[in-house]
Amino acid sequence: MSERRNNTARRGPGGPGRGMVAGDKAKNFRGTIVKLIRYMRPFYLQIILIILLAVCSTVFGIIGPKILGSATTALAEGLVAKYSRTGDIDFVRIGNILKLLFGLYVASVIFNYFQGWMMAGVTQKITYRLRKEISEKINRMPLKYFDTMTHGEVLSRVTNDVATVSQSLNQSIQQVFTSVVTICGVLYMMISISWQMTLMALIVVPLSGMAAAVVVMHSQKYFRAQQATLGNVNGHIEEMYGGHTVMKAFNGEEKSIREFRKLNSKLYDASWRAQFMSGLMQPITNFIGNVGYVGCCVLGGYLAVHKGLAIGDIQAFIQYVRNFNQPITQTAQIMNILQSTAAAAERVFEFLEEEEESPDTENPLNIRDENGAVNIRGSVTFEDVVFGYNPETVIIHDFSAYIKRGSQIAIVGPTGAGKTTIVKLLMRFYELNSGHIYIDGKKTTDLTRKDLRDCFGMVLQDAWLHTGTIMDNIRYGRTDATDEEVVKAAEEAYVDHFIRTLENGYQTEINEESTNISQGQKQLLTIARAFLSDPKILILDEATSSVDTRTEILIQKGMEKLMKGRTSFVIAHRLSTIRNADMIIVMDHGDIVEIGRHEELLEKDGFYAKLYNSQFEQAAA
Description:
- By secondary structure, this protein is of the alpha/beta class.
- It contains 18 helices and twelve strands.
- The protein has helices at 29-39, 44-83, 91-140, 143-148, 151-193, 195-242, 244-249, 253-306, 311-352, 420-426, 449-453, 470-475, 483-492, 496-501, 519-533, 549-563, 598-604, 607-620, and strands spanning 380-387, 396-403, 408-412, 434-439, 442-443, 456-459, 468-469, 509-510, 537-541, 567-571, 583-588, 591-596.
- The strands form three sheets. A six-stranded mixed beta sheet has the order 6-9-10-3-11-12, with helices on both faces. A four-stranded antiparallel beta sheet has the order 2-1-4-5, with no helix packed on it. A two-stranded antiparallel sheet has the order 7-8.
- A hairpin with a 2-residue loop joins strand 11 (583-588) and strand 12.
- The longest helix is centred in the middle third of the chain and has 54 residues, at 253-306.
- The two termini are 28 Å apart.
- The relative contact order is 0.09.
């Protein structure tokens, strides 16, 4: 429709239509996490099994160094005994220890494999369920929601936010438990070997944490700047690509390149600083960890000489020290991941909890014949209709009208007058504040929305075609139509000749933006689609303002033929085309200001007369 609000937002990665960026946090972290946990209830048993497998895998991995230390101790004792000629190396004992160790590591790998496999399945099922519920929710949402939200914002819930939840769950659930088990298990094993060495190892932990916190604090602002600048760069590229022809026509290449270089320089600077700062974390924490590692080695040597600490225990302890810092770092990363998970999940749940349109009546009237086709005559009655987009602002006051079948109703007014409001009410995109609308004497609220909307055919100024063949696009009007019926509809719409001049005829593919055919040709295809659906009531939005004279004549002929014998609501832009309308509804600033036939309204010398005369004067000039 000509006044349909264009909600498609061109946004780069920094905009709301992008999804999560660095630093995004949920408004209610705890509440959202609890809600997410409840949402996963159907998968509780699988998740518990995944956790058990992950814990078993981790425990076997933790025991490994201690057992390997036993083998090292046995080897060292055998070498000493052999050197002192008091014994020999017990290879049988060492072999048995290594077999046990190998078995543990194999079991650990097997458990890890199965928990990873199961976790992937659970996450994908949760993702599938979320996307399915969002898709179903979209079809139950009232139109007013989409009038207030950008398309990019809605799409980001289905794509980016759900993907964020999916990836985070896949990474986080088992890691939370394995990290905790690893920290507790490694700490226990370290203490069991030597409390003195454990104390030495723990001294460096807060130092590593402080260093990491300082790096994160400084790098976060650069990551935010990087995301914002990246959004500007992508937005500029998208804008220049979308308006490429206009940009070249006005010789805007140099200006565009200068702007891009400026934005790209900012992005380079922000990205370099962000990556440099984040890159410092690993070497700093490694350095601090190595200091503690050296301290443990020195202390272990001392305890081995003076306290009789086994060499194998020192080796095991050093392995545990190496393994101790990793889960701590992982836990910190998981907390950051959970923040973005909560933020994404919160946005998804907010959408799923949005108010839905009122449900269809429990006992709808049947208006279909034995073949399933809608069986109506096409009369429409408006009875004391009151409506406002906001309850406090009523724009239609007690509108009543009886429209006989086959009548032509024109809806006119200046741009932004609200001409599409009547159409939205007819098709129950919005609910009335009060009053009723009847189709053949039946209240529209007593019909299902599907049956009601099957009564209408639409040809809009903004001609919409989907990616696919011309045959598929025309068949969109009635999906069970045969090829012969599609061709007949195209002939009725005067578009068959054009289609046959194409290399692949009806099998010609329409590209994503429908740019491989002209605006007029698209309009003719939508008229053919309406012919195929064979509705009793038509909604037509005049769409000949940007086409050539020959195509305009074809579109007008197609529309006139389509309207014949059908009740038609015509959103008129050129008033000269609706002189013969049975009723003209004149709107201004959302209000119906006049109703009548062309001659009657001219005699009143009111708003319609001024509108008509101004167009006539412009045409004469």
